Structures are given as C-alpha cells and as structure tokens.
C-alpha cells in the first residue's frame, strides 16, 4: 500500500486505504491500526483539506524543507479520516489557524516520495469535496519497490573542562592527555576521570604528535554525505606518551601500504585554519621511522 501511495504522489494523486468500517487512512497502511485487519482497498482522496493542528517554525534550520518561516501542520485531506503531517507555507504565524483550508503544492519534478508534495498552501475555497467514494483498481497502480530516505542528525556538545582544554591545546598544535592517579595510564583525549579505576584525573600530560598505528580500517565503499573520497584509511594511533590509541585518518601513503606498527606523525592544518577541533590535525602521515614490532603494540589493539 505504501509503495502505491508513493507511486500516486509521483502522478499527483493521493491515495488512502479504506478500512472495513469505512474509515479512510492517509497515508495508507497495510493493516488497520485498530483491528489489525489487512487493508487492500485503495481510494483516492482530495488535494484540498483543513488544518487540524499546527506549530510555527520562525527560524528554519539548514535542512528544513523551506528556508523561510513556515508551519508544520496536521492536515485532514477531503475524503480522509486521518491527518497527514506536512509543511504549510504561510505568510506568517498570524495567518495560520486550526480549521483553515489548504491545498497541495506539487513539485515540478517528482520521483515517488513524500517530498513530491512540496508543501501545502492556504486556499480560500470553502466547500468540502466528495472524495474517497469509489475504490481505485489496485492492480493498475504499480508500487514503488525502493526509495532513498536521507537522514541527518545535528547536535551540539558541551565538551566539559577536560575536553575543552584538549581542544584548545589542539588549536596551538599541542596534544594533551590526563594521567590517572591510580593506574598511571595517560588517556588521550582526556576524560576527566579514569574509565578503569573510576577516579578523577586532573594531571595533564603533553604527548607527542607522533605515534604508531595499532589497527586500521580501509574505507572503500562510498555512502551519501561522505566528505572524503574513498578509498581512505581510518586508524587507531598510539601517540608517544599515551596508553590508549587515538582515532584519526592516515594519509600521504597508498592505503594498501598502511600496516600495523607503521610510525606516523601529525599533519597540522595551516595557522589560519587552526581551531579548537580535532580537524586541526588534517591526518597522520608516515614519519619515516622504522616500524614498531607487533609484540610491542599487541596489548593496545582495539
């Protein structure tokens, strides 16, 4: 049912599923959420509707569907008995109200996605149309078998004192860790406490910007949103003076030549690009030193 619903959007049609008691569910489901019965009757509903609930977005985020103030709204389409959540493009919050009439604005190019509905827009037409009376021939609608759904999560992290000091040091081309007062291990990045001994740690230790690759992964498969062109190497690097590996990229070497025990050094960003971020180290590169024997790094494998 969902595949046929998406195929309908591509053709500027909106389908719902009719339950045994006559309710029309939009978007359609394969089973009645009340009874669990299979739904196999497809009906076409209108492209006009009313707003049943809404919330105003005064400052859109970069990935919002509209880059101007808009509303998210629950919209009951003519002929439907359940509301659909979508975007309402309105001049301002004062022009939006529960019960207002709206209509679909379609995208010029459609692919079989809920985003084929660009948004809803206010519509003065007051009369409720008669839709959803006649069933649609389900077999005449070829369902979509695959869709691409982009997912993104933006978040803000409060680094805390230990991480903040670590990042500020990175901006000065320095790498600092913290030593546990009990086991005496040096952790990079610092955590503010030892995860093994569960005691606070505040003794700062500056470690070298050189280290040894203890394990690594070659990324060869591209994926949406990838910022580095594959193939590339992500490695656990045991910095000189630290007791646990530090995860970063290894470059300036063919990926097939990366190996456990490889000695590397930090490739720092230019002065103008330095900042309180791990990206101030662009990557690690071979230092030219002899490899470290496996026996010396096997206890640090992660």
Label the overall shape.
Answer: elongated
Enumerate the spans where pLDDT stays under 50 for 5 or more consecutive residues: none
Overall structural domain count: 2
Radius of gyration: 29 Å
Helix content: under 10%
Instruction: Compute the number of helices.
Output: 3
Strand order of the main beta sheet, please?
Answer: 6-5-4-7-8
Described by strand count, sense and barrel closure, the largest sheet is:
5 strands, antiparallel
Strand content: 25-35%
Q: What value does the average pLDDT take?
A: 90
Structural class: mainly beta
Chart the SSEs and their pairings:
Layout: H1 2-10, E1 14-18, E2 24-25, E3 42-45, E4 48-57, E5 70-77, E6 84-88, E7 101-106, E8 117-122, E9 135-136, H2 160-170, E10 175-179, E11 186-187, E12 203-207, E13 210-219, E14 232-239, E15 246-250, E16 263-268, E17 281-286, H3 294-297
Summed up, what is this model?
The protein has helices at 2-10, 160-170, 294-297, and strands at residues 14-18, 24-25, 42-45, 48-57, 70-77, 84-88, 101-106, 117-122, 135-136, 175-179, 186-187, 203-207, 210-219, 232-239, 246-250, 263-268, 281-286. The protein has 302 residues and is mostly beta strands. The protein folds into two domains: 2-140; 160-300, no CATH class.
Describe the structure.
This protein is mainly beta. The protein has two domains: 2-140; 160-300, no CATH class. It is 8% helix and 31% strand. The chain has helices at 2-10, 160-170, 294-297, and strands spanning 14-18, 24-25, 42-45, 48-57, 70-77, 84-88, 101-106, 117-122, 135-136, 175-179, 186-187, 203-207, 210-219, 232-239, 246-250, 263-268, 281-286. Strands 6-5-4-7-8 form a five-stranded antiparallel β-sheet, with no helix packed on it. Strands 15-14-13-16-17 form a five-stranded antiparallel β-sheet, with no helix packed on it. Strand 5 and strand 6 form a beta hairpin. The radius of gyration is 29 Å and the shape is elongated. The protein starts with a helix and ends in a 5-residue tail after the last helix. 26% of the residues are buried. The mean pLDDT is 90.
């Amino acid at each position: 049912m969902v595949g046929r619903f998406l195929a309908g959007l591509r053709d500027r049609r909106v389908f719902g599923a009719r339950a045994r008691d006559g309710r029309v569910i939009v978007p359609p489901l394969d089973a009645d959420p009340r009874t669990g019965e299979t739904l196999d009757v497809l009906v076409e509903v209108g492209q006009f509707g009313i707003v049943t609930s809404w919330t105003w977005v005064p400052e859109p985020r970069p990935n919002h569907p509209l880059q101007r103030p808009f509303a998210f709204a629950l919209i009951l389409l003519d002929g439907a008995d359940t509301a659909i959540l979508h975007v309402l493009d309105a001049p301002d919050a004062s022009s939006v109200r529960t019960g207002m009439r709206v209509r679909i604005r379609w995208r010029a190019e459609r692919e079989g996605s809920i985003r084929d509905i660009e948004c809803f827009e206010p519509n003065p037409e007051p009369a409720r149309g008669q839709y959803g009376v006649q069933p649609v021939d389900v077999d005449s609608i070829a369902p979509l078998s695959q869709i691409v759904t982009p997912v993104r999560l933006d978040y803000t992290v409060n680094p805390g004192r230990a991480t903040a000091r670590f990042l500020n040091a990175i901006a000065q081309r320095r790498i600092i860790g913290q030593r546990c007062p009990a086991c005496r291990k040096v952790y990079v990045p610092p955590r503010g406490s030892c995860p093994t001994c569960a005691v606070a740690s505040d003794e700062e230790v500056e470690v070298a910007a050189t280290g040894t690759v203890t394990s690594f992964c070659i990324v060869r498969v591209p994926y949406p949103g990838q910022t580095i062109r594959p193939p590339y190497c992500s490695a656990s690097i045991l910095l000189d003076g630290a007791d646990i590996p530090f995860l970063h990229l290894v470059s300036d070497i063919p990926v097939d030549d990366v190996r456990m025990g490889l000695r590397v050094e930090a490739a720092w960003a230019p002065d103008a690009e330095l900042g309180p971020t791990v990206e101030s180290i662009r990557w690690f590169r071979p230092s030219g030193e002899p490899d470290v024997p496996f026996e010396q790094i096997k206890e640090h494998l992660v």
